[in-house]
Design brief:
Elements (H helix, E strand, L loop, with lengths): L4 H4 L8 E4 L5 H12 L3 E6 L3 H11 L3 E5 L6 H12 L4 E4 L14 H29 L3 E6 L12 H21 L4 E8 L7 H4 L1 H10 L8 H12 L10 E4 L10
Helix pairs in contact: 2-9, 4-5, 5-6
Length: about 260
């Protein structure tokens, strides 16, 4: 079967310049690879893993670069670095985040402040900084925020993390409302448990409980998240904004009692 050119073109990101934060490894690296495969020019961002970021950029070749900085404190400069490299910034994937686990009664104020600074303030700062460039250019853009199903359904030991991801989901909707008239779309992806090297060995009980409860009886992969991001950045989602796409194998479809 031959796929019609107009259908294939829906997922074509050729020449779009995309910043993917926290993309030196894990989910972020999977997203970066998927967008690059769709033709995008990708800025691989890192805060601490310089070698991994440089290796990924070399793997992707001439349509990739590396940028470094704190997503909250350096948001404007990160956007300027992408523009200096690619001449424009068409999209941002706010993937960078932290996920420490701690019981509510053990949380200190610094724990909560840093969680909200990185996971929420960082997303808001980069969304605002990138959107200013997109609005000034006048031809729109797209932003995808990586949230979590914990922004919709909490887990024990994750109260500050769940709160931060719930904030990301609501920020996504608010930003979509304000930026829509400028043709800048803002959406979120809420992944469930995503597999990584060594996860089953480090957390066998959690993985087994997930597999027993998940309707699709599997863990997700970085490619699953990357596919969702690709769709939301593409022309296939041109009339979608303010949405949260849940990528969790059906876990949130389960009854809670």
């Amino acid at each position: 079967m031959v796929i019609a050119p107009e259908i294939a073109a829906l997922l074509d990101l050729r020449e779009r310049a995309v910043l993917v934060t926290g993309s030196s490894s894990g989910i972020g690296a999977g997203i970066a690879r998927r967008l690059h495969a769709a033709g995008a020019r990708v800025a691989v961002h890192y805060a601490g893993q310089r070698v991994a970021a440089e290796m990924l950029a070399r793997e992707m070749g001439t349509r990739a670069c590396v940028v470094h900085g704190d997503v909250e404190r350096d948001a404007e400069r990160l956007c300027e670095d992408v523009i200096a490299e690619f001449g424009r910034i068409d999209a941002v994937v706010n993937n960078a985040g932290i996920q420490p686990v701690a019981p509510l009664l053990d949380l200190g104020p610094d724990d909560v402040r840093e969680m909200l600074r990185v996971n929420v303030a960082g997303v808001v700062a980069l969304t605002s900084a990138a959107a200013k460039h997109m609005v000034a250019r006048g031809d729109g853009g797209a932003i995808v925020n990586i949230a979590s199903i914990e922004g919709l359904q909490p887990a024990a030991g994750h109260s500050h993390y769940a709160a931060s991801k719930a904030a990301v989901i609501m920020h996504t909707r608010a930003a979509a409302l304000e930026l829509g008239p400028h043709r800048v779309r803002v959406n979120a992806v809420a992944p469930g448990l995503i597999d990584r090297a060594g996860l089953a060995d480090a957390w066998p009980d959690g993985v087994n409980r997930w597999l027993a409860a998940c309707p699709l009886e599997s863990l997700g992969t970085a490619d699953d998240v990357g596919n969702a991001v690709l769709f939301l950045l593409s022309n296939g989602a041109r009339w979608i904004t303010g949405a949260t796409l849940v990528v969790d194998g059906g876990m949130l479809a389960r009854p809670t009692w």
